[in-house]
Specification:
GO terms for molecular function: thiosulfate-cyanide sulfurtransferase activity. The protein is of the alpha/beta class. The chain is built from ten helices and twelve strands. It has two domains: about 130 residues, 3-Layer(aba) Sandwich (Oxidized Rhodanese, domain 1); about 100 residues, 3-Layer(aba) Sandwich (Oxidized Rhodanese, domain 1). The radius of gyration is 18 Å and the shape is globular.
């Protein structure tokens, strides 16, 4: 059976239920919790994966091979060789079709989508709209335990495209809008001066699906229109990837969406850099 993806960056849970045997499903979950002091902490989502996942799914560890090891900040983008090896381990070949999802609001899956599509031009990747919750709402089966063994794949990524921008580039930015994907409260507490706030979570409907009508309204409110190039950021490059996914789903060209990979983690590491508060631009 020949399977082709729908146009656009998303597939529905209904589509995946029909075609799951013909794609590689990648669970990109991260375990997010609060510590005793009320601070948000993050850990590998592997235990969540072993508890429940879409049948046949492999696990993409954003605390492992799908991020750069020993980097200064969590979730730093890995190099081509490391990412190629991670994809080979889950059985990916150049012709493979990948569907990514997570068990939160989709931003972690969007991170893997952005790495593969924006950085390396791999067009055979889609995100599951609504993630694991959408799958469960259809009363589809789930499984537990370790991922099934697969034959090692042969995919080899090439040279990364210049889709990621550095702290130094952001500090010198004068033309392209800086767009922060954080929720409104943390944005108002601290953001890069001149930024506009487009919170990724506000672009999802009540079921956690990307609402392209909300995306369009948010762009109009911010006076942003394609094909204007944007520099997206957040706290650590995750919600920014979610925002990129939502924008592309609404028709924004992916090549116009650059990502500040270190985001506020990098910006705030130097106390001499300016920081703004309030509603922003």
């Amino acid at each position: 059976m020949t399977v082709t993806f729908p146009s656009g960056p998303l597939v529905s849970a209904a589509w995946l239920a029909q075609h799951h045997a013909h794609v590689i499903i990648l669970d990109c979950s991260v375990d997010r919790s609060l510590d005793s002091s009320g601070q948000t902490t993050f850990a590998s989502g592997h235990e969540l994966f072993t508890q429940q996942h879409i049948p046949g799914a492999q696990f993409a560890d954003l605390f492992g091979d799908f991020s750069q090891p020993d980097a200064a900040y969590l979730f730093t983008a890995p190099g081509a060789q490391q990412l190629s090896s991670a994809l080979q381990a889950i059985g990916a070949n150049p012709q493979s079709l990948l569907v990514v999802y997570d068990q939160l609001n989709g931003a972690y899956a969007a991170r893997v989508w952005y790495l593969l599509v924006a950085l390396y031009g791999w067009s055979n990747v889609r995100a599951l709209d609504g993630g694991f919750a959408a799958w469960q709402r259809l009363a589809q089966p789930v499984e537990s335990g370790a991922a099934h063994p697969v034959v090692r794949g042969s995919v080899q990524l090439g040279i990364a495209r210049p889709a990621l921008v550095s702290t130094e580039s952001v500090a010198e930015e004068r033309q392209r809008p800086l767009v922060c994907a954080l929720r409104r409260e943390p944005f108002q507490q601290a953001h890069i001066p001149g930024s506009v706030n487009l919170p990724y979570p506000e672009l999802l409907d009540e079921d956690g699906l990307i609402d392209t009508g909300r995306v369009a309204a948010a762009l109009r409110s911010a006076r942003i229109a394609p094909p204007e190039e944007l520099v997206l950021y957040c706290g650590g490059g995750i919600n920014a990837a979610g925002l990129a996914l939502a924008l592309v789903a609404a028709g924004y060209p992916l090549h116009a969406l650059l990502l500040y990979d270190d985001s506020l983690n990098g910006w705030l590491s130097d106390i001499s850099r300016p920081v703004a508060s309030g509603a922003g631009r």
